[in-house]
Amino acid sequence: MTATWDATYWNAASWAAPARAVIISSACTALLAVMPLAPAFGQDRSGTISGKAEAFAVSVPVRDLVPEQREPAGAVHRRRNPLAGHPDMGRRGLSPQTTPLDPLVRREDVLSSHTPGLSLHFNGTRNPRGCGGCTPPDPIGAVGPSHYVQMVNATKIAIYDKTGVLLKAPFNLGSLWPSGNCRRSDGDPGVRYDAMADRWVLSQLSIPNFDSPPWFMCFAVSQTADPLGAYYVFTFNMPDFPDYPKVGVWPNGYYLGTNETNYSAYAFDRTKMLAGDPNASFVRYTGQTNFLMPADMDGTRLPKGGGLFYTFKDDSFHGGIDRLELFRLTPDFVAHTLNFRTIASIPIAPFTYTPCGWFNLDCVPQKGTAQKVDAIGEWPMQRLVYRKFATHEVLVGNFTVGGGRASPGAAIRWFELRNTGRGWGLYQEGTQDLGDGQNRFMGSIAMDKRGNIALGYSVSSDTLFPSIRYATRRAHDPLGTLSPEKTLRAGLGSQTGSDRWGDYSSMAVDPTTDCQFWYTNEFYSADSATGWKTAVGAFTVLGCH
Predict the structure, then answer these.
(1) Which residues does 13 contact at the CB level (< 8 Å), separation at least 6?
(2) Which residues contact 149 (CB under 8 A, 6 or more apart)?
(3) Which of 9, 39, 340, 408 could potentially form a cystine with 54 if both were Cys, beta carbons 3.0 to 4.6 Å apart?
(4) Beta-sheet pairing, 293-297 with 381-388
(5) Considering Cα of 130, then 134, then 137, then 141, what sign does the dihedral take?
(6) Distances, alpha carbon 2 to alpha carbons 5, 94, 288, 289, in Å
């Protein structure tokens, strides 16, 4: 069945009441006076929305922040369903059906190379005491020349050196704002290391009222390469509830994909944000039919043109053939306009869209409990990694599908796209499922400077506590294959109080060597309602140096 609906551009009447909220933190220590700016939206005839920062300030240095004395109370909230109330909703595959075996599932013992062991591992941030309802943890991390920065929901940030020594204990990201809505630390954290500028980019939501505007995106951009220093902090009033925001670093902007009334893509003025210019602005396109994941650049060779986004689409849900769609957003921050266009529609091997059906969060079983957890098969998983080589450009990404050899059969479809100068096309794809009765989901992928790939993910079933694993492939391995997986952290318990798992994990590459992969995800050391912990591990594929 082909499912279609019209693109609806923002106006006051088109705001939808969101079904998902995020965690609210306690009040924070006051810092500096904030600079209020006039909130405003512009809209051109194409439906493009533009806006400027509502407020700007400079934080005190992170190293000088006083630890918080109170923790957020927290609450469990469901992911915001973008099609809630849509007239076609009842015909959109809401329950699991008999699923065919994914055509790319294969045995791992055909491979000759080996996934490397860990060179470093340590425990990251855990669920704060007193925040019993803070799920999911949304673990994300980025690595720079001298630091690893990790964030979790509600929104906590911790800073480590690259041996795993904690340099700054977890603190509320909102404490970087001296006042205003972004002090709330509401969640959906993001962290990127901008290697082009040698700076850190932190982000989160602020949602004072979940079912009505105003809604905010909060960005903190470090003044220097030191994440323990001061930050330029921006508050952007958003035209719709920017649920599930994902950030990509690009030379001409910080790009953002969001789950809104219609899936949307944003470009923020990177140049002004790096300079601490209060007039930093954004432009927005909306109207796609699946989540738009922005490309995030690794390596030293710079791309040209506007930022790239991708999504995947399924024949039975979205219509057409199973495919990847690639887009380019080119912003004009002077005229407050943009050009958003499809640059490739790439057929891929057939896949089953969502292992348990559209927005069925009670999906993946865990050992020792009837509580199941969300696989998030509806949307692309972060990151979409861009890398430029001497002879070609590369994009690598992943998403969760059905059709694995487990119950319900969650597996990870991963892919590599290439552009040799004649446009983007599929170079290779695979489905990570080992036929061992385990579900694999919540993936994150990256590529090093030699073209080696690493994929990290969660693994769970009714015989296995949720665990953290990873697998790699060397650039010369047979196409579509990954080496035998390794365990980063074996789970010793299950999550008994919520079906929210993830909502994401994070694979990054050390910019110093451009070889070492760093991965973070969640686990439990004992059965608990919401007592999650996180782990961080680093490893290098043999031959990359």
Answers:
(1) none
(2) 141, 142, 143, 157, 158, 159, 160, 191, 193, 200, 202, 227
(3) 39
(4) parallel
(5) negative
(6) 10, 15, 15, 12
Secondary element (H or E) of residue 318: helix 315-318
Task: Characterize 481-519 residue by residue with b for buried, 16 or more Cβ atoms within 10 angstroms of its Cβ, and e for exposed.
Answer: bbbebbebbebebbbbbbbbbbbbbbbbbbbeebbbbbb
Question: Smallest Cα–Cα separation from 500: which of 13, 4, 23, 129?
Answer: 23
The C-alpha atoms of residue 211 and residue 362 are separated, in whole angstroms, by 24
- CA dist 407 to 92, 95, 100, 188, 411, Å? 21, 14, 12, 29, 10
DSSP tag of 162: T
- Contact call for residues 204 and 190 (beta carbons, < 8 A): yes
Tell me whether strands 253-259 and 263-268 are parallel, antiparallel or unpaired. Answer: antiparallel
433, two tokens: 């499922």
Q: Coil, strand or helix: which one is 110?
A: helix
Contact 270, 283 (CB under 8 A): no
Tell which residue, 285, 331, 272, has the closest CA to residue 305: 331
Q: Is 177 helix (H, G, I), strand (E, B) or coil?
A: coil
Burial of 372 (0-12, 13-18, 19+ CB in 10 A): buried
Instruction: For residues 538 and 456, give the distance between their C-alpha atoms in angstroms, rounded to a whole number.
Output: 11
CA 154 vs CA 206, 217, 308, 498: distances in Å: 10, 14, 29, 16
Contact call for residues 283 and 265 (beta carbons, < 8 A):
no
And the tokens for 499? Answer: 């079906």
Query: From first to last of its 545 residues, what are the pLDDT tens digits of the chain?
Result: 322 222 222 222 222 333 333 332 333 333 334 454 444 566 655 567 899 999 999 999 999 998 765 555 444 455 788 887 665 544 344 344 568 999 999 755 556 668 999 999 999 999 976 566 678 999 999 999 999 999 999 889 999 999 999 999 999 999 999 999 999 888 899 999 999 999 999 999 998 887 789 999 999 999 999 999 999 999 999 999 999 999 999 999 999 999 998 899 999 999 999 999 999 999 999 999 999 999 999 999 999 999 999 999 999 999 999 999 999 999 999 999 999 999 999 999 999 999 999 999 999 999 999 999 999 999 999 999 999 999 999 999 999 999 999 999 999 999 999 999 999 999 999 999 999 999 999 999 999 999 999 999 999 999 999 999 999 999 999 999 999 999 999 999 999 999 999 999 999 999 999 999 999 999 999 999 999 999 999 999 999 98
Written as six digits, the tokens of 263 are 């899936």
Partners of 312 in the β-ladder: 324
What whole-number distance in Å separates Cα of residue 322 and Cα of residue 402?
14
